[in-house]
Amino acid sequence: MDETRLREDMARLSKSLFDRGFSVGSAGNISARVEDGLLITPTNSCLGFLDPARISKLDHHGNHLSGDRPSKEVFLHRAFYDTRPGTGAVVHLHSTYATALSCMAGLDPEDCIPPLTPYVVMRVGRVCLVPYFRPGDAQGGALIRALEGRHAAVLLANHGPVVSGRDLAATVYAAEELEETAKLVVTLRGIPTRLLGTDEVAELQRSFG
Fold first, then answer.
1. How many CA atoms lie within 13 Å of 60's alpha carbon, on the beta-carbon side?
2. Over 31-60, what HEC string results?
3. Residues designated as active site
4. Which residue ranges in the chain fall short of pLDDT 70?
5. Does residue 208 contact residue 170 with C-beta atoms inside 8 Å?
6. Which residue from 171, 185, 187, 203 has the fewest beta carbons nearer than 10 Å?
């Protein structure tokens, strides 16, 4: 995909997320890989009103090449690209239910989204909880790098989800799936619940990767 089309797709998909309440105000940031670097939404921008021409562009070393000043969470994004070679996009949202889940005590830090449906297994995989850090702190990138590419998605404690994927559309869909699963987790909290079993999860992983 050429860069102009990718910029337009970033603006279109970002607006779709904003219009449906997956982000509010200037919350959230999205990036996508291009041949000569990285496109990322500007700092303090609203996902509902992005100008494709003003989306930030960075080179492979993180240097700002053009567009508005990049998101302060660029460290998170670059950490996924550097540790998961197949990554084509990263989506960080403050979506309601995933963020609510990230604030709850008692989560399994290695597996904080239970396998309630086949789709969360297929599209998101195992999600770990990353310890709290101040937004914009480069420590966030170090915490993602410490996972060594084992997770395509994480919950940032008391902050929200970050999802990586092979391309922009697939990553947005995975972020939506994560939010819907978090909604199920919160809704079913305290209710006896059937999870997919180990064999069922393994079959999905064999079939869909």
1. 3
2. EEEECCEEEECECCCCHHHCCHHHCEEECC
3. 73, 119
4. 1
5. no
6. 187
